[in-house]
Amino acid sequence: MSPLTAYLVQFVLALLLAPLLPGIINRVKAKFAGRHGKPLLQLYFDIFKLLRKGEVVSRSASFVLSLGPAVSLATALCALALLPLGGVTSPLAFQGDFLLAAYLLGLGRFAVILAALDTGSSFEGMGASREATFSALAEPVLFSCLLALACVGGALDLETHLSLSGMLGGRPGTEWLLGRSELLFVPVVLFVLLLVENCRIPVDDPNTHLELTMIHEVMILDHSGPNLAYILYGSALKLWFFAALPAGILVPDFPAWWAQALCWLATILLMAVLVGVVESVMARLRMYSVPRLLGGAGVLAALALILTQIR
Amino acid sequence: MTSFLQLLLLVLTLNNLALLGVDRLRSLIRLITLQGVLLAGVLLALDHMLLAPAVLIIKGGILPYLLNRTRRRIGAEPHLRPRFGYGWAVLAGMGGLLFSFWLEGRLPMPPGLFPPLLLPAALTTLFCGLVLVVGRVTALSQVMGYLVAENGIFLLGIPLMSAGAIWFELTLLLDIFVAVFVMGIAINHISDTFESIDVNRFHNLRD
Lengths: 311, 207
Known about the structure:
The structure holds two protein chains of two kinds. Chain A has one domain. Chain A contains 13 helices and no strands. Chain A has helices at residues 3-17, 20-32, 42-52, 63-82, 97-118, 122-152, 164-168, 171-177, 185-197, 216-219, 225-250, 257-281, 290-310. The longest helix of chain A has 31 residues, at 122-152. The radius of gyration of chain A is 19 Å and the shape is globular. Chain B is mostly helical. The longest helix of chain B is centred in the last third of the chain and has 29 residues, at 166-194. Chain B is globular and about 55 Å long. The model of chain B has no long low-confidence stretch (mean pLDDT 81). The interface between A and B is medium-sized, with 16 and 17 residues.
C-alpha cells in the first residue's frame, strides 16, 4: 500500500473516530462514579441531532457569530491534516509546518472568541478573556516541546526536518527506547496541554453550563443547531490532534505501517482513558492556580529542551 | 545500566526543581526522602553495593523520620514561608541547571571520570539546596536545604571515591546525621524558648 493511501485511511479513521474520544472520557468518569453513564456514541447522536435542527440567532449578533464555528472546524481539520498520522508522513508536510498547525488552532480559537464577543453578552466576554489568557500561556509551552522534538526528530532526514512529520514520525519513540529518557517529559507536558487546550478538568469543567468560573462552555452558549454541531465536532478533532501528539513520541518505528497505526490508535484511546481518570480523581483548580500548572509544565518542557540540546 | 543511571539523574533533577516549587512542609520532607532513595539508586547503578543500602537507610529512612518527628514535636506550620515566590525559586533552580551545564564544559575533568549528566545533576542539587537555605524562612526548612546541598556534594564525591575512600564517605554520612540530630535538638530548644523558629526574629534579640 502506498504511503498516501495509508495516510488517507488513517485520516478518514481520525475523522470518524474523533467524536468517540469524549464518549470514552465520559464512560470512564461514569465507571469511576459507579454509574452506567451515557452511551459511548453520545456525541455522534448529538451532532446528528443538532445538524437536523434549526438555529436561533441573537438579534444583536452579526455574521461573525456564524463564522466562528465554521472557521474553528476548518482550522481543526487543516491542523489535523498536517500531523503524521500513524507515523506516516503527511502529504502536506513542509519545513516549519508545526508553526502553521499551532497558529491554525490559534486562528480557530480566535474565531470562537470573536463569535463569543459578537453576542454582546458580558458573560461570554468573560469566558473569551479567560480562554485567550490561558491559551496565550499554553503557547510557549507547546513551542518548547516542539523545539525539543525538533532537536531529535528529523536530524537524519533533511526533507522533513523541522516539520511535524519529522518530529513525530517515530524517531523520538526509537530515541527514548535507546535511553534518551528526557524525551519522556514531552508527552507529560503535552498531556497537560491537552487538558488546558481542550478545557478539561483541572482547568475547566466541560459539564458545567451555568457557572461563573467556566471558560470554554460559556463562549458557545449562544450557538445552536448546525453551528453548535460544528463546534462540537471541531473540538473533538482538536482533542484527537492533542491526543495524537503524545502518540507520536511514545510509539517507535515499526516495519509495518498498520502495526504502527494500531499502536497510535491504542495510544490515542489510552489518552482519552487517562483524561477520564484525571477528571475523576482531581478537583478543578482555582482560576489563579492554572498559570502555576502551566508554569510547571513550562519548566518541564524547558528541562527537556535543555537536556536534548546539551546531549 | 547507563540508561538506568540517566533516568535516575533525570528524576533527581526534576525532584530538585520540585523541591523549590512545593509550599507544604510535608511535601518537602517527602521529596527529600525521594532524593535519598534516588541517591541510593545512583550508588547501586554505579556498583557501590555496600554503600547503597546504608544511604537508603540513613538518607531515605532515618533523616526523614527525624525531620518528621521534629516537625510534629514543634508543631511547625504546615505551609512554608518563602522569602521570594515559588516561581522565582524554580527559575533560580533552572538558572542553576544552566550554569551547571556551562560549568561542566569549563571544568578540566579527566575524561570518563564522571558519567554523563552526573556532574550537572550534582551541581544543580547543590544550588537548589542553597536556594532553599536562602529562600525559606523557618529553621526546619533551612536544615532541609542544607541536607539537599549536602546530597549534591555527596553526588559529586561518588565518582571520586576509590576503594579506600569509603571511610571518608561514611564519616560524611555520620557528619550529616549528627548535624541534623543536633539541629533537631536545637530547633526544639529554640521553639521551647522563643515559641517560633522564624530566623528573621533572631535579629530582634537584645542582651
